[in-house]
Amino acid sequence: xxxxxKQIIFLCTGNVCRSPMAEGIARRIFADYEFQNYSFESFGTxxxxxxxxxxxxxxxxxxxxxxxxxxxxxxxxxxSADNADVILVMEEEHKRWLEKRFGEKILDKTFLLTEYxxxxxxHGEIDDPIGLDYDSYKNIFDKLYSEIxxxxxxxxxxxxxxxx
Length: 164
Hints:
The protein is of the alpha/beta class. The protein has helices at 18-32, 55-63, 78-83, 92-102, 134-163, and strands at 6-12, 38-44, 86-89, 110-112. The longest helix is centred in the C-terminal third of the chain and has 30 residues, at 134-163.
């Protein structure tokens, strides 16, 4: 299997919980589906200075055989946003922040993570678990995993359509 390939960015607020977990999950799932030429990065809207992921984010990922311990937080910049094919955000506020910072055109490739490739009209946000307990991180991890697996299947169906 392969895919045509894309640069996908995951964006949250601090880049220490949701988006690094999403990046790690995406790398795992897309490798399991044997996609090629897909790359993933994660960023935050805040510049919190090269911070490590939260302990619970690292732990919940480790329990699922995903290592995000070497990740360091980074604020998204224009070049990264411009080079991305798709930007998947956790909250509507992240869309507004991108538009304000980089202009309206960025919204053409920006989606809530729960919105991208979904056939549903209902798209919820992915809650920020910062400061919450391990079980909250586990719940967020499970939601991210489910959504990213759905996205991988969507990308797979699109690549099959291109072949046919």
